[in-house]
Each structure stands twice: as C-alpha cells, then as structure tokens.
Design brief:
Order of helices and strands: HHH
Largest sheet: none
Strand content: under 5%
Number of helices: 3
Number of domains: 2
Helix content: over 70%
C-alpha cells in the first residue's frame, strides 16, 4: 500500500500523527499537574500492586496446562 500512496499524503499523515502525539503529551502533563499529590500516590501504589500480582496467574497457568494437556491426550486415545 505504501508504494501506491503519494508522498504529500504520507507527509500530511506523519504531520497529523506528530501533532496528535504532541497534544496527547500536553494533555497528560496538564492532568498530572492538576491532580492532587495524594491521588497520584494512591495511583502509583495501585500500579505497583497490579504489577506484583501479574506473575501469579502465569504461575497458575504453568500448573494447570500440563493437567489439561494430559486430560486431552487421554480422551483422544
């Protein structure tokens, strides 16, 4: 598709993407500046807890998968 798209269209698209990125960055910074410190701290704690809790389901999958595979092999015989 890129080979068929004219250069001015690609330039305009890149310019619009850059402008959108810049606007999103400004809005995010504005929101962070206006957010009370206590709320930012609580949000940071929630993110930390979520990141720490992520490996548990992966470990659970590692235990459950061999059981499911073994069951499916028994049924297919």
């Amino acid at each position: 598709m890129r080979g068929k798209t004219h250069d001015p269209v690609l330039d305009k698209t890149a310019q619009a993407a850059t402008q959108g990125w810049d606007s999103a960055t400004r809005v995010g910074q504005y929101a962070a500046d206006k957010t009370p410190d206590l709320l930012l701290e609580k949000a940071g704690q929630a993110v930390t807890v979520a990141r720490q809790a992520r490996p548990a389901p992966i470990a659970g999958d590692a235990i459950i998968m061999p059981v499911l595979v073994r069951r499916s092999r028994r049924r297919s015989r």
